[in-house]
């Protein structure tokens, strides 16, 4: 049941033009633009090449776009049109409805990561080989954490409110959640708060893995806590209509 439900969710996501725009084209546009244009100050990049600094953060953005924003909006409108109500009449338990969406988000993130990685390689990206396993674990945990947050939001509010709030949160986390602005460039107190956000933890963990080749237990722990807490809450609070 889980495999079938996840396959349907993946198919629906890939056929949705707006979802593809949000989850893939925007991250790709930012990757190319920020890698080729002198937009970000050189002081924030450090000694690493621009594309090496940008790519891990764009991967984190792609996870947030698909697993959180896209997931929340899709779920909100599925509830509005009675999709969840009809699925609840089948043998699918509520927890499996959540798990199926998270599994589908993992598949989409894998496709995103491959495409973004190929484009980044053409731009000159050279990730640290020793950090690839850590990066894969971070992407999985980030998908679970953001996916659970997306289900929590999309399963609680009206579709119109979900659409507005999910996009606002995406924009705020992009600019102030540790993705485009590294926590190290912020005041110490604010930096600590940003590092405890799933966006900041994922972006910093990906940077440590793919730039420094380091294992990132701190960000992994933050993402795991977000995934467990919000996933459990979402499985109890998601409304069918």
Automatic annotation (TrEMBL):
> Family, per the entry?
Belongs to the ABC-2 integral membrane protein family.
User: Which residues does UniProt call coiled coil?
Assistant: none
Which PROSITE patterns did the record assign?
A: ABC_TM2
Location comes to:
Cell membrane; Membrane
Lineage per the UniProt record: Bacteria, Bacillati, Actinomycetota, Actinomycetes, Pseudonocardiales
Pfam annotation, one family: ABC2_membrane
| Keyword check for Transmembrane | yes
Q: How does it sit in the membrane?
A: Multi-pass membrane protein
What's the protein name? Transport permease protein
């Amino acid at each position: 049941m889980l495999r079938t439900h996840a396959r349907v969710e993946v198919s629906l996501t890939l056929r949705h033009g707006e979802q593809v725009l949000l989850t893939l084209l925007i991250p790709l546009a930012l990757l190319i633009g920020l890698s080729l244009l002198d937009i970000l100050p050189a002081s924030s990049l450090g000694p690493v090449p621009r594309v090496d600094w940008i790519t891990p953060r764009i991967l984190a953005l792609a996870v947030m776009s698909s697993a959180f924003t896209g997931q929340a909006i899709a779920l909100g409108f599925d509830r509005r049109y009675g999709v969840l109500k009809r699925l609840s009449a089948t043998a699918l338990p509520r927890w499996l409805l959540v798990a199926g969406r998270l599994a589908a988000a993992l598949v989409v993130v894998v496709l995103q990561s491959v495409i973004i990685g190929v484009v980044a390689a053409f731009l000159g990206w050279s990730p640290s080989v020793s950090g690839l396993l850590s990066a894969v674990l971070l992407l999985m945990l980030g998908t679970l954490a953001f996916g659970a947050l997306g289900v929590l939001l999309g399963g609680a509010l009206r579709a119109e409110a979900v659409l507005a709030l999910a996009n606002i949160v995406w924009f705020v986390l992009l600019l102030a959640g540790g993705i485009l602005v590294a926590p190290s460039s912020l005041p110490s107190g604010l930096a600590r708060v940003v590092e405890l956000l799933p966006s900041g933890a994922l972006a910093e963990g990906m940077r440590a893995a793919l730039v420094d080749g380091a294992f990132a237990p701190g960000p992994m722990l933050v993402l795991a806590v977000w995934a467990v807490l919000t996933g459990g809450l979402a499985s109890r609070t998601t409304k069918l209509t």
